[in-house]
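Supplementary material to the annual report.
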Amino acid sequence: MAEHEFDLVVIGGGPTGENVADRAVAGGLSVALVEAGLVGGECSYWACIPSKTLLRPAAALGQAKAVQGSAQAVTGVIDARAVLRRRDEMVAGFDDSGQADWLKGAGVTLVRGRGRITAPRIVEATGPDGATVTLTARLAVAVCTGSVPVLPPIPGLAQAQPWTNREATAAESVPDSLVVVGGGVVACELAWAWRSLGARVHQLVRGPRLLAGNEPFAGELVAAALREAGVDLRMETETVEVSRVPGGERTVRFTTGGRSESVTAAELLMATGRRPATDGLGLEALGLGTAALADVDDDCRVRGVAGGWLYSVGDVNGRAALTHMGKYQARAVGDTIAARSRGEAAEPRPWTRWAATADHRAVPQVIFTEPEVAAVGLTEHAAREAGLRVRAVEYDLGSVSGATLFDPGYRGRAKMVVDEDRQVVVGATLVGPGVGELIHAATVAVVGEVPLERLWHAVPSFPTVSEVWLRLLETYGR
Amino acid sequence: MAEHEFDLVVIGGGPTGENVADRAVAGGLSVALVEAGLVGGECSYWACIPSKTLLRPAAALGQAKAVQGSAQAVTGVIDARAVLRRRDEMVAGFDDSGQADWLKGAGVTLVRGRGRITAPRIVEATGPDGATVTLTARLAVAVCTGSVPVLPPIPGLAQAQPWTNREATAAESVPDSLVVVGGGVVACELAWAWRSLGARVHQLVRGPRLLAGNEPFAGELVAAALREAGVDLRMETETVEVSRVPGGERTVRFTTGGRSESVTAAELLMATGRRPATDGLGLEALGLGTAALADVDDDCRVRGVAGGWLYSVGDVNGRAALTHMGKYQARAVGDTIAARSRGEAAEPRPWTRWAATADHRAVPQVIFTEPEVAAVGLTEHAAREAGLRVRAVEYDLGSVSGATLFDPGYRGRAKMVVDEDRQVVVGATLVGPGVGELIHAATVAVVGEVPLERLWHAVPSFPTVSEVWLRLLETYGR
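Predicted assembly:
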C-alpha cells in the first residue's frame, strides 16, 4: 500500500472533476484525480458528445431540404453507417488517452481506480487489478462522480437487458426497431436520433407531455415533430411488464387510458431518470447518508462536515445535472479551495467567483431534437410558484423574417418571462430549428439582470432569427 | 392642389420610415408616409431580403455536406432556378401591396409620391402622374429616405450599364460570369451568392483586405473562403476604365502592383459604397446643406433647425447604415415625437427610450457570407483609437466542441475586446458558419455593461458553439 499526499483529491474524472482539478492546479495546488472508468466521463463517451453526433446529420440535412434550391441537391438519405463511424471517432473509440494526456499537461496526477473515502481527507483508490492506493488530501476532497441511470422495478426488465444511455449512444448498428420508455431529454433526443437513422421507434411516456420541466409548448412541438417523423408516441402510459424471447426482441406491456397494450421491438431503451452516483463512496464511514452530497452551500461544500474539507460538485449534488453547470460549479470550487489554502475566506456571496449562483437563477439547457428546445431560468409556472409577480409574452418564431429566410417552413415559438417588480427577464424558452445558439443572449440578460428599458438598446441584427428578442420586447410593449 | 394636415409627415417608407410612423401612431399621432417607390424600401426588395434568400441555400447545403452521414445524401448541386423563384416570392414580385396594407392596418396614411420639403413643416408629394399633394406637418417631419449607391467616376462605367445592388439582387438568371468591384459587405455577399449559384466571379478590391471596418481576421477568413470557392479575388486594385461591346460583355481594366490587367465578364456589379439619399428633398429651401441630415442629436433631431421639427432617421443620417439600426432609431424617434406632443421633454439621455445610444456603442452586424461574420461594438483598433485601455482575447472557434459537432471541419475565430478600466466587454467579432445567431449574446453584454465577473455566471449550454463565450473568458483569465 503506497501513500501519497496532495492538497486536493478529486473523485471522478468527468468534465466536472477535470475542471475542479484544473482550476485548483491553476491556483497553485497539487491535485490527484481518481477515476475508475474513462477520463472525460459520461459526457464524452455516452451522453452529450455521441448523442449530438448522432443527431447533427439529421438536423443538417433537414435544414438543407427545407430550403428551395438546396432541397433539390438532396436526393439520398442519411448514411447511418457513416454517422456511426463519425460517432466512433468522436468518442475516440472509447480510448481516453487524449484526455489523460490533457490532465497530465494540466499538472494533475491521474490515479486510475475506484475512489472511496475511508476517513476524513483520506481516499482509497482501488485499481482495476485490485491494488489499492491511499491518498491523503491535505485540504479537501471533491466528489464529482456524476450520476447513473435509474431503472424502475418493472417485472422482467432486468432479464430483458435494456439499453441505458450508454448502450443507446454506443450501439454499433441501427436497430430495426426500438422502444423508448421515458419522456425527458434523453428519451426524446435518442428517440429522435435513432428514428432519423432509420429505426422504427415507439416511445412510451408516463405523463401527459414530453419535457415536463419546460414550458408546455416545448413538449408539444417536439411531440408533433416526433409523430410527424413516424415515431409511435404514446402518452400517459404505465409500463407493466417487459419480456424477451431469449436472444430476441423485447415486448413491453403497458396500460394507457385503462387499456392494456404492448409493443415489441429489437431493442428497449430505458430513459427513466438518473440518480447521483454515490455507491461505494464510503459516505457511511463519515456518518453521512447518501443524501448528504446534495446538502451543499453555493460553494458546493457539503454542510455539516467538521473541518469543511468535503465538496460535492456536478451531477452528484443534484443542483443542475448538466455538463456545463458541472463545469461552472467546478470553476468556483477549484478557485475556492485554492483561495482558502491561501487563507482567503472566499465566501460564496451571490455572483462572486466563489459561488455557483446561476444554479438557482440561470441554468440554460439545449435539447437537440428537431426542433431544438433551448431554455434558461424560470418557466412562467415556476416563477409564479416561486412567488414572483411575472408577466410572460410569447411570439411565433415563424413570423420572424430571419426564420423564414433560414427555413421557409420555419415552425417555432418563443417565450420570455419578466419579473414585473424588478423589470428584468427571469426566464426564456425557444423552440425551433437552430435555436440552441440563440439562448445565450437570454442567459446574459438573466444573469446580468439587465433592465428591460436597457434591453431595448440591444438590437438584434436583421435578418437573423435572433430578431425574436426584439419581437418579444415589442409584444411586451413599452 | 389638395391640402392635408397630419401631426407627423414621414418621407420614405423603408423599414425606418415604417417604424417611425408605427410608433408615432401608437403614441396617438396622425401620420402621413410619403413614398415614391415600393413601401418596404431597399431592404425588402433589393438588399437584406433578396440577398439573404440568394445566400441561404448555399449555406444550408454546405452545412449538410460538411457532416458525415448527411453529406452522403447530397448528390446534386444547388438548383439556381429554384433559388431565383424563391427570391421572387420573398420580394413578392416587387408588389408592395402587402406592406401598404400593413401601413393601413397600423393607421398610417400612405401618400404615393416623391416628398420634397418646401417650407418648414410643409412637404410636397409629387405622385407618379405628376400631381402634387401638399402635406402640413403640425409637429414634425421625419426624413427616412435611406441611401443610394455611389458610382465612382471611372471612364466608360456609365455606358457599360453596371449592376448596383438592385440589379444584382433582382437578376432573373445567373450570369455566366460577373465582375464585382468592391470589398465591403455588399460586394462580398453578392460575390458569394452568385458564385454559389454557378457564376464565374472576379472580385476587384481597392484596399489590402476585405470588410475593412472589421477585425482583420474577418476579411482574411472570408477572402480565403471566396478563393476556395473559386472566386478570382484581386486585392489592392485600382479600376481604371470600363468598356463594353455593345450589348455584350463588360471589360474592366485595372492596375495592381504597378501592372495593368483586365477581366471580362457578362455582368459588372459596382459595390463601391453608398451615400445618403438627399437629392430632391428641398433642403436648400430650408437653408440647409445636404450634410445637415447627418448633424443630429441622439434623438435623430436635426440640429440648428428653428422649432426643432425636422428629424433625420436611418441610413440617411449616416449613423449606422443598417436596417435594424434604422428601425432602432425609428422607435426612439416615433416615441419621442409622440411624447413631445404631450408636452414631455423626452430628452435623449443615454440609454433611455428617447435616445439611439447604441449607435455609438453597440451596432451589431451580420455578414451572410460563408463563413458568416458577426460583430458588435468596437474592434480592438477602434477601441484604442477611442482612447480606451483595452485588452483583446481571441479563440479558435474550431476548438469548441459544439463547433466540431456542428461541422467536423469547422473553421472560425472569435475575439472579445474588454475595457480594462470598466471591466466590461466593448466589442466582439465572430467568424464561422452560423455565427450570425451568436452575436446577440455579446450585444446584450455590451449594452447591459455586464461586468466580466458577472459574465462568468452566464454559462453557455454544452455542447453549443456558444461555448466560445466561456472560452474567451477563460482565455482572458480571472
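Residues 48-66 of chain B form the longest helix (19 residues).
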